[in-house]
């Protein structure tokens, strides 16, 4: 993973209205656990690396859950899949995304609309892009944009805004060319560096041209049933959040470490029969829920606030952001990942 993704050395936050640098920050400073290491990792590469650590056939793709039933008195859950097949589960961990069927079964609050929308793209430079290994970010003027080198030949960019239409996309999600021109027109109307415009122009748009940004209300998580019996949730099914801190996948990996540790302690090396094992599993999931509840609420709240303030074009918010809060907002990018979830 390290060999395929550049380590970012710094963050440069720029005002979209003035073109001036609002804040520069070293991304290699020392944190609680040592020097920070920030990289823009391509999702497909991460998924492939994780899959390769598992025995062949462990993952069953295209297995969307439709409903969940209790299987008689043995406490197992019967999962009905979209293809008509069923699965029995001794332990059910819902990692089924923001529209999670498992989260709904647990009674978690439905994700809320943030009022913002995002699009993103990936630009390739076969001969090398020559950009500094820095995270370049633009804030204000009613949008939030950024560009991050992933490798010597690949650049990722994103753009978020608050649509004026009810469908949440301003009607520009009909084709890749329409979305690209919309982003370029917004960037050209502001003071954005030419290399960002070039990256957007040569980019491949993602399959999802634009998506409304949703999140689960942090306060609802503090009171919610994250686990119930032998069922729990993780990843976006637990803590859907706006992407403003780039911590969605990172927080899901934290979930995995904590969950594996809790379940491992409950299942491995313990004596007793099936009944005792069931009780240990329930206790392990309750322990996991207790550990991840506050952390999840913290990440969701911090990400929402950072995105709201950085994107705003309100005169008062813009003044406070640019003159007083630019340092705090930038440091939050390092403060939230500086967290020890423990070891397996």
TrEMBL record:
Gene Ontology MF terms: FAD binding; monooxygenase activity
InterPro entries with a match to the protein in the record: FAD-bd, FAD/NAD-bd_sf, MOase
Keyword field: Monooxygenase, Oxidoreductase
Chain segments annotated as coiled-coil in the UniProt record: none
One of the Pfam families matching this protein, by short name: FAD_binding_3
Segments forming domain FAD-binding: 43-272
Record-annotated membrane-spanning stretches: none
Family: Belongs to the 3-hydroxybenzoate 6-hydroxylase family.
PANTHER family according to UniProt: FAD BINDING DOMAIN CONTAINING PROTEIN, EXPRESSED, FAD/NAD(P)-BINDING OXIDOREDUCTASE FAMILY PROTEIN
Protein name, per record: FAD-binding domain-containing protein
Organism field: Brachypodium distachyon
């Amino acid at each position: 993973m390290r060999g395929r993704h550049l380590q970012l050395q710094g963050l440069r936050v720029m005002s979209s209205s003035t073109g001036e640098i609002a804040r520069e920050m070293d991304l290699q400073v020392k944190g609680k656990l040592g020097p920070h290491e920030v990289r823009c990792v391509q999702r497909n590469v991460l998924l492939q690396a994780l899959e390769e650590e598992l025995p062949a056939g462990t993952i069953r793709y295209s297995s969307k859950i439709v409903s969940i039933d209790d299987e008689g008195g043995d406490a197992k859950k019967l999962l009905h899949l979209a293809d008509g097949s069923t699965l029995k589960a001794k332990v059910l961990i819902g990692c089924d995304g923001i529209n999670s069927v498992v989260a709904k079964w647990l009674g978690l609050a439905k994700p809320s609309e943030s009022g913002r929308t995002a699009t993103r793209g990936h630009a390739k430079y076969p001969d090398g892009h020559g950009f500094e290994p820095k995270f370049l970010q633009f804030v204000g003027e009613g949008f939030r944009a950024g560009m991050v080198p992933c490798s010597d030949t690949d650049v990722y960019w994103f753009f978020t805004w608050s649509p004026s239409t009810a469908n949440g996309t301003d009607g520009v999600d009909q084709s890749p060319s329409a979305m690209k021109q919309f982003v370029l027109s917004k960037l050209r109307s502001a003071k954005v560096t030419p290399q960002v415009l070039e990256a957007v122009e040569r980019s491949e748009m993602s399959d999802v041209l634009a998506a409304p940004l949703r999140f689960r209300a942090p306060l609802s998580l503090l009171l919610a049933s994250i686990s119930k019996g032998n069922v729990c949730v993780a990843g976006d099914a637990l803590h859907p959040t706006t992407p403003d801190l780039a911590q969605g996948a990172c927080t899901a990996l934290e979930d995995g470490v904590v969950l594996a540790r809790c379940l491992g302690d409950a299942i491995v090396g313990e004596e007793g029969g099936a009944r005792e094992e069931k009780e240990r599993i329930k206790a392990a999931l309750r322990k996991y829920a207790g550990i991840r509840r506050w952390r999840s609420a913290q990440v969701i709240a911090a990400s929402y606030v950072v995105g709201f303030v950085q994107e705003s074009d309100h005169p008062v918010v813009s003044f406070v952001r640019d003159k007083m809060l630019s340092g705090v907002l930038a440091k939050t990018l390092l403060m939230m990942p500086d967290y020890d979830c423990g070891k397996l």
